[in-house]
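Hi everyone, sorry if this is the wrong subforum. Our group has a chain we'd like a structural model of before ordering constructs, and none of us has done structure prediction before. Sequence below.
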Amino acid sequence: MPKKNCGIELGIFAHGRRASHWCGPEPNNNLGFRVRGNQLEILISKAILNGERQLVWNVASAWWHRPAGQQFDTVRENRVVEVDAPDFDFSTSESSISSNVFEAFHYSIISKDDVREILSYVYEQSPADDEIVVIFTDFRVDDLFNTGAGTGPINIPVKGIGAWQANPNNGTDYGSEKLLVSMAPVFVGALNFRATGTFGYNNLPFNNHAPGVSWIAHEAVHRWAAHLDFQNPNTDTIENLLDNLCRCHWNDYLHTPVAYPVWSAFAREAYDQPSTMGGRLWIDNDDGTFTQQSDSGTLFYPKGLSAIDLYVMGMLPANEVPETFILRDVEQTDRWDTVRATKVPVRIEDIVAAMGQREPSSTTSKKEFRLGVYLLHEQGRGPHPSLLARAQGVVHAVGEYFDLATGGRMKVRPTLSEDN
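Answer:
Right subforum, don't worry. Here is the predicted structure as tokens:
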């Protein structure tokens, strides 16, 4: 199966939850797979079942134009599978390849979808005075790729950057009136939180916990981004700047160069940096075509923040946000990285026309944030010293990231608390 221009997507549905995997050029992180002859074996976590006796799976295969994402020749199948518990047990499977896929199913299950119970317990033990939270465990959990979504905005409303931000989740449910955003629990001993190593198709070396910092920074910035509309100056219509999947990242055709590169803290040489919240770097060829500037080998390296990101975060005043553009009426050319499109200017006044002014403004918005970091460990013992040290290294790197990515405007002060 050529990975450059095709893919398979599998969705597993049970107990009102969904896991999915993209097998091809854009891997997702919820399912494992292996190819054996002409069979594709899919491995899912028991956590998604959560006691359910029945699950539904669907699979769609498609050939794709890259990077435009138009699909054709799609084949889709849905099937209901009866789960005969307790025989439905992946822990008894045998692996013929060297990996952690089956091993993952021998470990504890921790909810990735809802951290309210964990944080409510944590805040009963310690003061609830942090705004951004990372939850680590020092024991293995049933998660193949050791990641997860953030909560989105909590507590303090912010106007002019999106409906969810203006009406955030109720902090009382989490036990804190100050909490702004939290991430899903992750095992700090996993490879994506190591201090050094290589990543990407080119095995490029990284340092300073780069993959882990990339994930934490992305989920933290979801407190403010990305939910913007703008008034198209060519048509005067209100349109969004968002992706088509979750409507919570910047559209792939939005040009999102970062304001301040962060590569120097995480790699030996510079790499391409569109916003950590999405978008791409597009080169205008001055002939009606645009070429994507990208480096897939640095997919998991920390990206910086665009001027639009800094604006919605309250770090940059509107009059300092430079004009960018989004591509519309996109048509694929015979090159995978080049499209023919209409270039539509995106100016801050167009965003304000659609969203209203940001309130509070950058003048009065919060600039210093307390990063609460909690290391969960098993009862009857203290935390593993080496993993405690790794957690400390990760969170200090996160503080360094935000200092670089905001040009020194935002300060994230990490703390570390141990809990049972």
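For your construct planning: The two ends are 46 Å apart (CA to CA). Residues 1-10, 14-30, 57-102 have pLDDT under 50 and may be disordered.
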